[in-house]
UniProtKB/TrEMBL annotation:
It comes from Micromonospora nigra. Gene3D superfamilies: P-loop containing nucleotide triphosphate hydrolases. Residues 264-276 have a biased composition (Polar residues). Residues 1-28, 254-276 are annotated as: Disordered. Residues 41-217 form the AAA domain. It comes from the Bacteria. This is Chromosome partitioning protein. PANTHER family: P-LOOP CONTAINING NUCLEOSIDE TRIPHOSPHATE HYDROLASE (PTHR13696), PARA FAMILY PROTEIN CT_582 (PTHR13696:SF52).
Amino acid sequence: MSNASATDAAGITPPSQRNPSNRETRRAADRLARKLVRAVVIAVANQKGGSGKTTTILALAGELARRGFRVLVIDCDEQGNATTGLGVPVAKLDNEGTYYLLMDDEAKPADVITPTPHDNISVIAGGEKLSEVTAALASEMGNHTFLSAHVETLRDEFDVILLDTPPALSLLTLNALYAADEIATPINPGVFDLAGIAKLTKTVKRLNTRLNKNIAIAHTFLINFNPRRRNDQDAYGFVKGAFPDALIDTADPQPDREWHGSGVPQSASVNSSQSAGVPLTLYDPRTAVSRAYCRVADVIEQRSLRG
Ligand SMILES: Nc1ncnc2c1ncn2[C@@H]1O[C@H](COP(=O)(O)OP(=O)(O)OP(=O)(O)O)[C@@H](O)[C@H]1O
Ligand SMILES: [Mg+2]
């Protein structure tokens, strides 16, 4: 995605001619340029349950919001973990936002966008009622496009829209993938998790061919990763072979290090931040796990959010 023409048209100095005095100035200029283009929509997906999808949504939402991007999280999961993880209690909402958007022909996203306690982060809540959607919409024409239609109306209000998906290939997952521009996939280094990747790849292929939806796994990275474990290094090699351009090495570049790949480490602060309803990267930005997620955010910002 290029910002150049929109930037030029608005009379903003193109990036190549800017001489930013510091990082913040550069970011402010990037943000200004981004406001002239439409939000990037990223679905975090992996059909394997418990693979760090929601943790990734929360960590990325926190870090991208801290950098000044306007972030909307759409929780497409009946577990509602992305909603509560942002400090928004599902039970206190009058309606469950994503359910309402999918089920009510008159629904308007503005009615269900909920502010969170965190600057620059809003959420459309998930929750239990989403379990009714797949059966209720089974015979509706174009039922995979319902979320996409709403997301399109929100692209001018946000810089990045993150879609949290459930663990199976339900109609909810399909709606999220169809609404997205790209997919981010966290992967555990276990053998079953690696096998699950084939399933997601097949789903993506089907979206490409059967629904004519041009989408790919654009970003992937290992989680619960220990670089000194042989199995984890093997897993890194496997994922590198499958997604050579998408795999993110979460360590800062260190040419002399003895191992050749890195991922997000395991940490008790993941669970503590989720209990506190605060995105991991805001809860404790100094931990190794937060720094790894910041590196993921760096790469996503570079690849997808800047021109
Ligand atoms: N890096 C990590 N360190 C420690 N615990 C983690 C880490 N990443 C995820 N977890 C924990 O693993 C569990 C599963 O993570 P998460 O809920 O993010 O997965 P998910 O893919 O969203 O699951 P589901 O498929 O059920 O939606 C959670 O209890 C979470 O706190
Ligand atoms: Mg989840």
